[in-house]
Specification:
Elements: H1 2-18, H2 42-60, H3 64-77, H4 82-94, H5 98-108, H6 115-122
Helix pairs in contact: 2-3, 2-4, 3-4, 4-5, 4-6
Length: 124
């Protein structure tokens, strides 16, 4: 009797597996959407803006290491801020690293808007 119950349980489990996994809907039925751009919180914007401003000042004073550190910190907070890429490109130009400035400017174009985009394009 116990062996029959075990057999029934095993067969039930196997029949559930035999039906196979559910097939995903065909691609034509699935709506394709681009991910919505998420604006950073106001506090994040002001924090990165302060860091970028401090980096600009440090760059103008010739303190490139400090400027680089401030920009790296800003990127850790918001890696999608075009203004950070713009200032980083300016920093590379000030150091004579033209190729790096162009690479950063190109990358920043993915995250910029308005005047920042115009400035980044001029650096390419």
């Amino acid at each position: 009797m116990v062996s029959r119950l075990i057999l029934v349980a095993v067969l039930s489990a196997l029949s559930a597996c035999a039906s196979g996994p559910q097939q995903p809907a065909p691609a034509t039925e699935v709506e394709q959407h681009e991910p919505a751009a998420v604006a950073p919180a106001e506090g994040v914007q002001s924090a990165t803006a302060s860091l970028v401003e401090a980096a600009q000042h440090a760059r103008q004073q010739g303190d490139y290491d400090r400027a680089a550190g401030l920009l790296q910190r800003a990127q850790r907070i918001d890696s999608r801020a075009g203004s950070i890429y713009l200032e980083l490109a300016h920093l590379y130009l000030a150091q004579g690293k033209t190729e790096q400035a162009q690479v950063v400017a190109d990358r920043g174009l993915s995250y910029c808007a308005g005047a920042v985009c115009t400035q980044l394009r001029s650096l390419r």
